[in-house]
# Entry
Amino acid sequence: MKVDQLSVFLENRAGRLAEVTKVLSDAKINIRALSLADTSDFGILRLIVSDFEKAKNALKDKGFTVGRTSVVAVEVPDTPGGLHKLLEMLDNEDVNVEYMYAFVQQSGQHAVIIFRFDRTDQALQTLEKNGVRIIPGETLYGM
Amino acid sequence: MLFDVKKETMPREELEALQLSRLKNQLARVYANVPFYRKQFDEAGVKPDDVSSLSQLNLLPFTEKQDLRNHYPFGMFAVPRENVVRVHASSGTTGKATVVGYTQRDIDTWAELMARCLAMAGATPKDVIHNGYGYGLFTGGLGAHYGCERLGATTVPVSGGGTKRQAMLLRDFGADFICCTPSYVLHLYETALDIGINLAELPLRAGIFGAEPWTEEMRHDIERKLDIKALDIYGLSEVMGPGVGMECAEAQAGLHMQEDHFLLEIIDPVSGEQLPMGETGELVITTLTKEAIPLVRYRTRDLTSLIPEPCRCGRTFTRMKRIMGRSDDMLIIRGVNVFPSQIESLLLETHGLTPHYQLIVDRAGSMDTLTIEVEVDEELFSDEIKNLQRREGEIQRNIKDFLGVSAKVKLVEPRSIERSQGKAKRILDRRINTA
# Structure
């Protein structure tokens, strides 16, 4: 049920992000979702891609530091309060969100939210118990 | 201005005779009292009596900083510990610091030599001397302090830090002289301007600057901004502290080395061979009068050359040119000695591995800054900003705690630090060209 997220360490300098996208583009990797977290000196690019292993190897070959993190992708109704309900149920179980990012599906009916939890297994249980639709990696990679 | 006319203008012949008799005395003492030296001499097959002229100095083995570390804390003392009235220590992680001791007579000698230096700058008992060198285990503060008192000047023992207050005291007390590091005086100048005090308008006549490398350009900068004479002082804790040598205000052309107490040599840092007068190499000092820790042929690692020609100020002591650099990889940052190996062991301690790293020393405005670039590898990497920042913080705190130097830790991408052929180039010192 977990999704593989690729994280890339980036120094804050001009053109560095473009170098990552060039590597992925050359390797014919499609980016499903991404977020960039940054400080004044460095950033962490988090990506969900169409082919994790291929993307990881391509970036490593070019000298990037990459990591694999298990994240959870869920589908929430694209309506007011959709995210709030979800966060409330997690809070009740004391699950902490380390970070998250979201995108809206092409159909426009649902939003997909990628979560990084402090206790991933506990979070999965809670979400399943509450009938939240969890998107498996295979589905997401090919979306 | 001479503090001790008789000594400071001693004819060379007389000086050399004095040096030889003091050297013989010293060698006999270290051989008898310091097991390290007895072993060194025995291994080199030389007895103190074998040295019957100054030119035979090269029969004797060298002493290195590491020897002091190996005998931490008191193993190099030549007198019983109860005769030691004070200790100072250089920076370093526990067990790596170099500890030096002083007998009362050593302190008296030091005060005397430092008083000579102040007089070389033109200071008299009528003057107010603002002493901004740090007081404590670092030799700068107390060393200069005792010299100021020996001279009979009015001493302001302000120590380091509290820059705005220092500016205020300089104005209120009307100091004639200031002692501190050259980078600090520029910082002080700028901070003073911020609070409406222009140091150039104060009575300050000269500054005695040392404890870190600086350049001729920086001297001009200080002199222009503060409207004072900026003078270079030399010293190292192992040998004494500040006052081993000092520029005179008359010529500002090389530091007069206190040769009645220290014997000087310049060697090739690689072969260890003595070099002829005037050539550039590593300064080696033999102490002639020190009681607590006498040093025989101590390798300072400072690169310089000696000027034999007499100075127009009348002093007969040999002069030393401004220190040009180091023959090892030691960095002096705001007066604190830092070896890349110390940083490396702290990185190792923080992460259990030695990442590729580089030390960048810069002068931001007027203060030395140390940045440690650490390459992020998969071990170090995390997808969470807070984890990476925690790692930066850990390294930073460790360095501050163990070395006493504030450093900025910057995580960089793998292979972004330039690889050199062979030995890794760990240091990028940008101060040399940025004065």
Remarks:
- The first helix of chain A runs from residue 16 to 26.
- Chain A has five helices and seven strands.
